[in-house]
Amino acid sequence: DTTREHLSLAIALGLPVFVVINKIDMCSQATIQQTLECVTSLLKRGDDSVQFKPYFIQNEADLIKAADMFVKKHICPILSISCITGENIDLLKKFLNILPPRLSRNDQEILSQLPVEYRIDQIYTNNISDEVVVGGTLRRYTFIL
Which GO molecular function, any one, fits this protein according to its record (predicted)? Predict the structure, then answer.
């Protein structure tokens, strides 16, 4: 249900969306097909202005075409992977690396100068240390997860 809500919200906001279906090593072909049909029906909800056309990535040629059309053509690339067997992980990495930036270089530079806001959803504790991180400095080119 959460996935449906997130996907519906992204579509309603007109955000570019791509779908990664994981754990294909644990499912039958029928289950994978059912999941793909469910995702496809979710993408086609709403009026024509916010619908996304599903675009299934099977190989590197599909991947390059999908990345090129991603933002402009209202497509939703769909990629099935397995983190256990590694199936199609290379395609996912390539896709993420060739996606065009949504902002111009100038807008990226302006954005990089703005303060960063963090929202803490949960607090985790460990038995290794009693220290709590309460602050820090974020520098330019710092990788943020």
Answer: translation elongation factor activity
The strand pair at 53-56 and 75-80 is best described as: parallel
The span from the CA of 87 to the CA of 21, in Å, is 11
pTM (whole model) above 0.90: no
Q: What is the DSSP string of 68-111?
A: HHTTTTTEEEEEE--TTT-TTHHHHHHHHHHPPPSS-HHHHHHH
How does residue 73 score in pLDDT terms, banded at 50, 70 and 90?
confident
Question: What digits encode the pLDDT tens for the residues 81-124?
Answer: 999 999 999 999 999 999 888 788 899 888 888 887 777 776 66
11 DSSP assignment: H
Sheet of 19-21: strand order equals 19-21, 75-80, 53-56
